[in-house]
Structure formats: C-alpha cells, structure tokens
C-alpha cells in the first residue's frame, strides 16, 4: 500500500496540467519528479537556461542506467554530455515509464481539522418553524481523481497528463484555473499533500487487508464520465495542435512539388517522346504527397494512468423542523478538512440558504422565494405557485385560485366566473360585457360591431344582440328599419333622403350630387332621362332639364339647354348663343372672356386673325394693325395725340412709371381697350407706357423702351 501511495503522491506533487487547469512547465514537472524520488538537484550556472546536475538515488540510477544526469531544457544551450528534455524525448519517456511501473491506485484520507459541532447548529436560522429533533453523525465523503495520459502524434509527438476530479454522484469538481462560477474549487495537489494513507485493517486471521474500495460498477461509471471530460479537453487541444501542424505540412508539400517540377523541366522532349518519364515523376510525386499527409495526420491516444480515492471526513446534522402542521428534515454538512459548510437548498431556486422557512407543503424555502396567498394567507414557495391574478394582480394559491381555461392564468374567485355560453370557468380578463345587453361572456363568443368600428370605437356584442345586415353582410347592434321595404339594415347601409327626411336601405335610394334621395322624391329629366331631385328651365326655349344636363353661361349666369349653349374647346367656358362671339374674318366661335374684342374696332377676332403692334406691344385684329407694324392708335399718335404730364398723373405711383416719367416729353392717345403714352427724349430715346382701361380702376400693364438698338435686339420690356 505504501508503494501505491508513493506513486499517486509523486504524480500529484509534479502538478500536471490537469491538476492546475493550465499548461504546466515541463521543466517544473521534471524537477519535481526527481526531487520527490530523492535525487539531488544542482544548478550549473546562474543563467535561466543553465543545465541541471541530477544525482540519482539507487532506484532511479538502476532505471536510468546512470548515477547522474545533466539535463538541459533548451536546444541552443545543449552541450556535450547533456541530454535535452522535451515532450517525447528519451528522458521524458523513461520518467513516464518509471511512473507506469508503479501502482496506479491510492486510497487516502484527509485529516479532521474542524472538530467542533457548534457551527453545524448555527448554520441555519429557522424563520417560521421550530426545531423538533436533532441527530448528529460522522460520515465519509469520497472524491475520485482520474489521471489520463493524452498522446498527440503527428510529425512530432506531444504528451500531457490531465486529471478529472469527481464526487460520488459523478459531478465534476472545478480545479484552480477552471472557470466554474461560484462552485467550490478543489486543489488536488494540496489535498494529496495533506492526505494520509488509510490504515490497513486486520481480518480474523490477523492478516492486513487493504481498504475497501467502492463497487466496481461505480468505479467504471465514474471512469467513463471522467473519460468524456478528458476527450473534450483533447478535442480542444487538437485545434491548437492542428494549427501548428498545417504550416509544416504546407512547407513539406511545397518542397516536394518544387523539386519534382524542376526534375520534369530538366527532361528534354527528345529524351522522353512518349512522356513516360514525366508520368513516372507525377506518380511518384502523388505518392510522396500522400505519405507526407499521412505523416502529418494528428492521432490522439487516451489512456488512464492512475486514479485516487480520497476520504473526506464530513460531520452531518439532521435537524427536524416543524411548524405545528408540517415537519421537514434538513441536513447540514460540514467538511471536517476545510471547514466548508453545506446548507440545505431552497426547493424553488436551488440555492443554499441560511434563513429557512417551511411552506404549506413542507418544502424548504428561502426568504427570496417565500410567497403568501392573498386569500388564505398561507405561505408557499415560488415553485408551488402563488400566481398573480390577471385582473387585480393579487397572488393566490392553487386552492384559492381558479385556473382560466382561456389564458391558463390563475385568477382569484372574485375575478373568475362561468361563461353562460360554453360553461367554462374564465377569468374576467378573458371575458367582456356585451355593449348592448351587458351580459359577461368569453371574448371568443362576442363579435365586433362594424358600425362602431367605422366611427373609430370598439364595441363587442353577443350573438343575441348582433344582427346581420342584409346589405353589407356584417354584424351590428346599431340597426334601423327601411321606410320602403320594412327590412332592418345597419346604420352604415341606411341613408336619409335629403328631400323627405325618411331613411332607406340599399336599392331604395340614389345618390345625386353627393346627397341621397328616395325613389319617390326623384324626377326623371326629360332631356337626359336620368333621375334628379329638381329640374330647371332653359332661358332661351323654356325646355325642362336637370342639373346634370343644364348649361350655365359663364357670362350672364343663366341656365340653358344643350341646344342653346356650347362649351368652348380652347378654354372650356360655357357660353350661351347671345354671348358667344365670332371672328370677324372666319366666323369661328370666340370666347369673350379669354379673347376680348379688338380695342380699336371692337370686333371679335380669333388668334389666327390677330396682330401685335410693334410700338405698344398690344394685340389687335389684323385689320387694325397696319403694314408698318403699328396699330391705328400708335400710327395716328403724331396727329391725334395730346400733350400730357405723366409725372403728375395717378399712374406715376407705379414704380416703373415713376422712374421714367420726368425724363421724357409725353403724348397720349387711347382706344376702347388701352390708353397709350409715348415719351420722347433726345438722350434716352422713346419710351411707351400702356394702361389697361378695361380694368377697374385702370392700371399700368406694360412699360417698354423703343429705340434703334432696342428695335434691333427685340424691343425689351421693363
């Protein structure tokens, strides 16, 4: 048994990677190995890379075949007589072989450092219960540490030791370096250094027997669980190792490809007319590539090297709690080795708790998860279910509340009732009152009133109050009777006659000019034979017509029939026969609103028989504009024109006129449409001002300068 203990102790003290949860320095592992087995270690130099002199004891000297070793951990510092220690080196393999030659099992027990039991009684604080019974006992908790040797083989060889620590239930215990939240950290190296061998027992014959181990089935089950963690760890490491292998593989393949390409290029076509040599090189290259890929393929080997069973002394206090109605037994455990307390877990949240309460069902509950029913005032844990009522929000238990069939929530008795239609117990949040009769029932039995929806409001009505409109086929409680047919229609389909004021349904009224009229109040137009509420009389012939077919003259505003009015194509104005003008030359209809008569001769004219005066710029009929380009008014200005002081006239208020009025000598002449002012100036040339006499009051419509240069450029306007 001593040999078994020594082996496990050696492996734990070397602190392999699995124990620390991180990469362990190979130098630290090697020095710890020789130090544990009694070798003397001497540093040969002060540098960090200096080699070590190892003086071996008898056992190690026999195993290694030497009395002393000179070890170096750097390839560059390797000297004659020294041996390099790396993963997969001869020295490292001999170290592992020495460990494998010893026993792979050890059973250890931890010392009891915390013997008092007062902390067990103070570990919990009852809230709503009292202690009805107490039982103290000492127990042993088993920890299992499985150490795996993981070998990674490719073009190189790497090895590591990985240890998984499990408890009796198979739960993995975190070790230093693991990220496991608030779970208790197990320092396996410290445990094994503090542990002692389990004393051997004597049988009836007085022979020493080893400590009793757990059942083999339990050990196998735990080993399989630990193997899964080791495989997962190896998978993570393979990602890093493969990332390091691939560059080396690419380098080797590139070297091969380059070499064979050079060989193929050196072969002359005359020496290889059939291409057999090049084909042989290609086949050889593919074979070499396959060999390199296979040599760089990562292979993983996983072996169980040892396992340890650690006895942890545990003090247990079984406390019986009672509130007079319910009793519950809680257990408080204290690790006698490190003093850690394990308190009872809350039935709802699963967290350990100091303040303990018992709910109505005897469950252990912490203060955070303790709830109270608002109806019966009983205490319950969060898992047992104090659910808020969906209507009032008060918590109620499964005894006091009623489960709603519709939403699945638990409602209090005050806000739950039976639906009169389906008979199910439904909370009031899933029910609604009929907007018409006020009967409460499930929302699924109610219909939305479409008339209220058109008004922007929501009203739910029951099937009794809902009437299906024969017009729109929708349900509503806002209905009325048609005065013509006696049928009931919804208010959306009914219309009120603008003449008689009665209400009618679809098919019994017509909409004319945006207003509804019943069949009785409509009159058939004798002209277009369309129904109309009123008729009109033509001013010219006295014939009756409706508002749709009547023609309203844009000049006089009287009503005319189609025969005595026409619509102008150019401006869309409607004109009666009396106010329709005709061109003096071609007799084409002319609109007097858009095309006024000639300002000189006062005759209508069309655009084809019009002309523009080159001096005043006004438009006249073609006969009133002479060949010289001037209208009759401008042409006779020198004879019939009168002197006029434009600066003191009302037109001088116009900014354009006021700017030029004092710089010219003005003459004026007028016709029926325009009054024309012509100003003469030696320095400034000629200026023309046109005033529209048809406007009320007359207003200036144009101011333009006329001169030799302006005439050449096109006579610009101001």
- The portion of residues forming beta strands comes to 25-35%
Largest sheet: 7 strands, mixed
The number of helical segments is 14
- What is the C-alpha radius of gyration, as a whole number of Å? 57 Å
| Low-confidence runs of at least 5 consecutive residues | 1-23, 709-718
End-to-end C-alpha gap: 125 Å
Derived structural class: alpha+beta
> Tell me, what's the shape?
elongated
User: Residue-averaged pLDDT, rounded?
Assistant: 84
**Could you give the count of β-strands?**
53
The percentage helix is 10-25%
Question: How would you characterize the overall build of this protein?
Answer:
- Among the domains are: 2-103, no CATH class; 104-112 and 138-198 and 215-267 and 275-314, no CATH class; 386-431, no CATH class; 636-718, no CATH class.
- It is built from 14 helices and 53 strands.
- Strands 5, 7, 8, 9, 12, 13 and 14 form a 7-stranded mixed sheet that branches.
- Strand 35 (509-512) and strand 36 form a beta hairpin.
- The protein is elongated and about 160 Å long.
Summarize the structure.
By secondary structure, the protein is of the alpha+beta class. Among the domains are: 2-103, no CATH class; 104-112 and 138-198 and 215-267 and 275-314, no CATH class; 386-431, no CATH class; 636-718, no CATH class.
Keywords, separated by commas or semicolons:
alpha+beta, 718 residues, disordered N terminus, elongated, seven-stranded mixed sheet
